[in-house]
């Protein structure tokens, strides 16, 4: 909010478009900011492990605020006018690309999309050199990469915010969308029990690094040999003790689903694991989420999947049922990444009353 006010004063934009400054401020709601101790401008989002409970809640608050003002109230909020975003994608994407590209544009900015064929990241040009070049031409970087270490080096060498659009160990922007979806459905996150049934992958890692911070319990079922990273598990156990929540790991899907409010799964075969397909399909037999799984869950249970989905992971009866929140979850990828970008690039403060978390 304050950024846009300063931008108008400095560039004389109100005069250029023949709108009095006071009227411009009134029209777009850039009034007095809501007081908040959270300051994220200029930072990175590489993993939710690095974010406090208040900081994650603030990102969700901004996302909820933008969704209400832009989608429901049809307000025009050019919060990122004059700013550019470099999007580096080593992996294919539907939701991450579309949510980021359209979200940045809706806010008045200009996104630039680069695949592995368009950029020399770590091949013909070092990551260090790439980071410094991009820092001179853009205001932020969103990178969807194979290696978390590449992302960390990019952030270390860049002088602009870097956002993790997915890596081998984390998917923080996905989990923000999951939490916003659950907050909208249940009214609060505190006390919910999440059940993860599937692979011990990057999405699960991000849940384990953050669920306890909201007071949510986590029950995890993975086949033997596909458990979450031991280092992640140790940190999650420490969080569970610190925040007074429960963490339970098993190889039995029904044990993990027992009493859960939310059943969650993901692809069993991630990009780059295609050669393991037959081995994985065999290992994950019995892990499909069905209505039988839901019978041991809590009444009113819901279902999440970050997509794309395969029928062996969850059957059609659950996936297209009223319990399934997957398409609301997918839409919220847009509002949460918009919340992240606004928080890291501007001084905007949400106008909507803070949701209950």
TrEMBL record:
Gene Ontology cellular component list: mitochondrial matrix
Primary residence = mitochondrion
Q: Does the keyword Transferase apply?
A: yes
* GO biological process entries: citrulline biosynthetic process; L-arginine biosynthetic process via ornithine; urea cycle
Q: Which UniProt keywords apply?
A: Amino-acid biosynthesis, Arginine biosynthesis, Mitochondrion, Transferase, Transit peptide, Urea cycle
Looking at the record, the residues that make up the Aspartate/ornithine carbamoyltransferase carbamoyl-P binding domain are 44-184
Under which EC number(s) is this enzyme classified? 2.1.3.3
The protein's GO terms of the molecular function aspect are: amino acid binding; ornithine carbamoyltransferase activity
Q: Which Pfam families match?
A: OTCace, OTCace_N
- Tell me where in this chain the Aspartate/ornithine carbamoyltransferase Asp/Orn-binding domain is found: 190-343
Protein's cellular compartments: Mitochondrion matrix
Q: Which domain of life is it from?
A: Eukaryota
UniProt key word Amino-acid biosynthesis: yes
Q: How does it assemble?
A: Homotrimer.
Q: What is this protein called?
A: ornithine carbamoyltransferase
By which gene is this protein encoded? Answer: OTC
């Amino acid at each position: 909010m304050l950024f846009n006010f300063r931008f108008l004063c400095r560039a004389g934009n109100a005069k250029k478009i023949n709108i009095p400054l006071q009227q411009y401020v009134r029209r777009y709601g850039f009034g007095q900011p809501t007081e908040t101790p959270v300051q994220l401008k200029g930072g990175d989002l590489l993993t939710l492990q690095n974010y406090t409970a208040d900081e994650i809640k603030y990102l969700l608050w901004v996302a909820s605020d933008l969704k209400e003002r832009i989608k429901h109230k049809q307000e025009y909020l050019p919060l990122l006018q004059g700013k550019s975003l470099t999007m580096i994608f080593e992996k294919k994407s539907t939701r991450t690309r579309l949510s980021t590209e359209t979200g940045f544009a809706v806010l008045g900015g200009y996104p630039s999309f680069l695949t592995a064929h368009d950029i020399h990241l770590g091949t013909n040009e070092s990551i260090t050199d790439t980071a410094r070049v991009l820092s001179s031409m853009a205001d932020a970087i969103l990178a969807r990469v194979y290696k978390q270490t590449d992302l960390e080096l990019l952030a270390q060498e860049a002088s602009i915010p870097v956002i993790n659009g997915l890596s081998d160990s984390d998917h923080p922007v996905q989990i923000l969308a999951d939490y916003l979806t659950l907050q909208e459905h249940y009214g609060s996150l505190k006390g919910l029990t999440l059940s993860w049934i599937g692979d011990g992958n990057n999405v699960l890692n991000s849940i384990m690094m953050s669920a306890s911070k909201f007071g949510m319990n986590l029950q995890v079922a993975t086949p033997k040999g596909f458990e979450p990273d031991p280092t992640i598990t140790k940190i999650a156990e420490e969080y569970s003790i610190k925040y007074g929540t429960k963490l339970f790991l098993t190889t039995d899907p029904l044990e993990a689903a027992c009493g859960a409010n939310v059943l969650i799964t993901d692809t069993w075969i991630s990009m780059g694991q295609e050669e393991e397909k037959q081995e994985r399909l065999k290992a994950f037999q019995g892990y499909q989420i069905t209505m039988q799984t839901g019978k041991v869950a809590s009444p009113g249970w819901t279902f999440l999947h970050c997509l794309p989905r395969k029928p062996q992971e969850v059957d059609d009866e659950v996936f297209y049922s009223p319990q399934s929140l997957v398409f609301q979850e997918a839409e919220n990828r847009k509002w949460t990444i918009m919340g992240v970008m606004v928080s890291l690039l501007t001084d905007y403060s949400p106008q909507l009353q803070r949701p209950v978390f």
